[in-house]
Write a structure and sequence with these properties.
Elements: E1 11-16, E2 23-30, H1 35-46, E3 52-62, H2 69-77, E4 85-89, E5 105-106, H3 109-116, E6 124-129, H4 135-149, H5 156-174, E7 178-185, E8 188-195, H6 217-224, E9 227-233, E10 236-244
Parallel strand pairs: 2-3, 3-4, 4-5
Antiparallel strand pairs: 1-2, 6-7, 7-8, 8-10, 9-10
Length: about 270
């Protein structure tokens, strides 16, 4: 019998960005009250476009049968972008409390990092910009240089179209500092822009009011992108798009592919 006081559950987190991949340690109780905090922490890390993220839940108590739902939702909401490899670490019963969350579970952090292998740092770039005239031009210059280096020259023009619309939306509407994120993907690349406004561009496929956030430019994005969307964050959002490259002829033995990410050993 309790004394009438209801103790609120709590989750504490520690984000270590000094590892090969970001490591998030969660402790406390994961339930309906704390799930939004866990989601916010994980999405904030993933918004930096890491290749992978390791989450240590060895001291996290699943306080209810559906506690792992938030992890499954994070996996679903970030599958297209940033498409990071996600790994849980839990020595308890082979990670049985987290079955069904769609994350691979490792018994400890060292083995999770070993399973992920070494990062491919050559195929992920970020550019910090202020919301000023010229920001889109600077982004296009970076994209042209990057597509050439990644052997994705056929994506230079569509990637510049996507980036121009996204960056100009920030300059005209959000008016906050932004981060442009580029990444090579298997079969193409992604372009994303993170800003500090919660308002997202809209696209209905019909007539667009002249004052609409996104306006007619999002029609262009929709026409050249394989897919696009947005990721809501506590301090703003990320708008992203993926672009597909034309299949290339087979390379000679030993020749490194320029347009792939996560090159290396298989990941768990």
């Amino acid at each position: 019998m309790h004394n009438g006081a209801i103790m609120s559950s709590e989750v504490r987190h520690l984000v270590d960005r000094g590892q090969t991949y970001p490591l998030v340690r969660l402790t406390g109780v994961l339930d309906a009250q704390t799930a939004p905090t866990v989601r916010s922490v994980l999405l904030d890390v993933l918004a930096g476009q890491p290749e992978a993220m390791v989450v240590d839940v060895g001291e996290l108590d699943p306080g209810s049968p559906g506690a792992g739902t938030v992890l499954r939702e994070v996996h679903r909401d970030t599958a297209d972008w940033p498409a990071a490899h996600l790994a849980l670490c839990d020595p308890r019963h082979g990670g049985s409390p987290w079955r069904g969350v769609d994350w691979p579970v490792w018994p400890d952090v060292p083995r999770a990092f070993a399973g992920l292998g070494e990062p491919d740092r050559e195929h992920r770039l970020t550019l910090e910009l202020e919301p000023r005239v010229g920001a889109a031009r600077r982004t296009r210059e970076l994209i042209t240089q990057t597509c050439d280096r990644w052997d994705l020259t056929e994506l230079d023009s569509p990637a510049c179209i996507v980036a121009t619309e996204m960056v100009n939306n920030v300059v005209a509407h959000a008016r906050t500092p932004m981060v442009v994120l580029l990444a090579a993907r298997a079969g193409g690349m992604s372009v994303a822009v993170r800003d500090q406004s919660a308002v997202v561009p809209t696209f209905t496929g019909g007539p667009v009011p002249p004052t609409a956030y996104g306006g007619r430019g999002m029609l262009l994005v929709d026409s050249v992108a394989e897919r696009w969307g947005s990721l809501a964050l506590d301090d703003g959002k990320v708008v992203w798009a993926t672009l597909a490259a034309e299949p290339k002829p087979p390379r000679r033995a030993g020749e490194r592919p320029g347009g792939t990410s996560m090159v290396g050993p298989p990941r768990g």
